[in-house]
From TrEMBL:
Belongs to the zinc-containing alcohol dehydrogenase family. Keywords: Metal-binding, Oxidoreductase, Zinc. One of its GO terms (molecular function) is oxidoreductase activity. Its cofactor is Zn(2+). Residues 8-343 form the Enoyl reductase (ER) domain. InterPro entries: ADH-like_C (IPR013149), ADH-like_N (IPR013154), ADH_Zn_CS (IPR002328), ER (IPR020843), GroES-like_sf (IPR011032), NAD(P)-bd_dom_sf (IPR036291). Signal peptide: none annotated. This is Alcohol dehydrogenase. Pfam families: ADH_N, ADH_zinc_N.
Length: 346
């Protein structure tokens, strides 16, 4: 089959590789009909995720059709149209029994495109298929369902739920890429009083406004002064970091109010300073997190009911064999206006 293979920092290519095969009785093989590129994939290419070995097929998001299942798979069969979750869970270890599938102790967690071959390919082996796949209703288009593989549950769980957004809150989201925009969309489910989006790219700020942000601020402007001005000097109730660089995390800790929440969503490849000399007295809650995807079934019901603006997050569509072009467009988002790119089997 053909697949997008990582060869080391800054190096990848669309190669011919062996077809995946069942390795464990809990596996399924899925023909990939739709996939996409995540900001995490760009972090991998920058060398920010050194656990990814050269030769790994990238990608952790897909919609497709099962072609084969292992003998222990009980919930799915060949021919089922499914969503492939970015997280795999054994279902039996301590963390999985708590719904924290991202921390699975038995070889699950975030493994696709990370520790095992991923979804930016014609076929993918999905470990722990019974918990890692979701059947898709016919009425949910693949181009929208693909957003439930990662960005919508990540923004919702790691941003909105960890940040404890409540009605009337002032919420600031630093970074208006796909994850930040998904955070705007899912924060609105909790009726905050005001949502502010911060980014360098005007195209992404425009998208944030379309998705429900009340205010947008250029990152190069006086973000701290703006937040003080709209909160009577207090600071924001909830601040979400959706970039993954030290400067944005440190900004988040400066604009949150005493007693507020900072929810880090971004993937960080470098240390960030934690100014405890200023923060120790402020009663802050700072959370980090890898998505568990425990919210995916609920989000899928909302998507099927038309409650999530998934279509608004997609800007470009490519054929599977144009993967390298898709990476080029996605990586130059400030120039191309790319948000989420959808990659379909021809």
């Amino acid at each position: 089959m053909r697949a997008l293979v990582f060869h080391g920092p800054g190096q990848f290519s669309w190669d011919t590789v062996p077809d995946p095969a069942i390795q464990q009785p809990t596996d399924a093989i899925v023909r990939v009909d739709t996939t996409t590129i995540c900001g995490t994939d760009l972090h991998i290419l920058k060398g920010d995720v050194p656990e990814v070995r050269p030769g790994t097929v990238l990608g952790h998001e897909a919609v497709g059709v099962i072609t084969e299942t292992g003998d222990a798979v009980g919930s799915f069969q060949a021919g089922d149209r499914v969503l492939v979750s970015c997280i795999s869970g054994c279902g039996r270890c301590r963390y999985c029994r708590e719904g924290a599938y991202g921390q699975c102790l038995s070889g699950g967690g975030w493994i696709l495109g990370h520790l095992v071959d991923g979804t930016q390919a014609e076929y993918v082996r999905v470990p722990f298929a019974d918990l890692s796949l979701h059947k898709l209703p016919d009425e949910v288009p693949s181009e929208q369902a693909i957003l439930l593989s990662d960005i919508l549950p990540t923004a919702y769980e790691v941003g909105v739920l960890n940040g404890r957004v409540t009605p009337g809150d002032t919420v600031v989201i630093v970074g208006a890429g796909p994850i930040g925009l998904a955070a705007v969309a899912t924060a609105r489910l909790y009726s905050p009083g005001r949502i502010v989006a911060v980014d360098l790219a005007q195209s992404r700020l425009d998208a944030a406004k379309r998705l429900g942000a009340d205010d947008v601020v250029q990152a190069e402007e006086d973000v701290e002064g703006f937040v003080r001005g709209i909160t009577g000097g207090l600071g924001a109730d909830v601040v979400m970091e959706a970039v993954g660089v030290p400067q944005s995390f440190e900004l988040c800790t400066r604009i949150v109010r005493p007693g507020g929440h900072v929810a880090n969503i971004g993937v960080h490849g470098k240390p960030a300073a934690l100014h405890l000399e200023d923060l120790w007295i402020k009663n802050l809650t700072i959370t980090t997190g890898l998505v568990d995807t425990s919210s995916t079934p609920a989000l899928l019901r909302m998507l099927a009911a038309g409650r999530l603006p998934a279509a608004e997050l997609t800007t470009h569509t490519f054929a599977l064999d144009a993967m390298e072009e898709a990476y080029d467009v996605f990586s130059r988002a400030a120039e191309t206006g790319a948000l989420k790119v959808v990659i379909n089997r021809s």
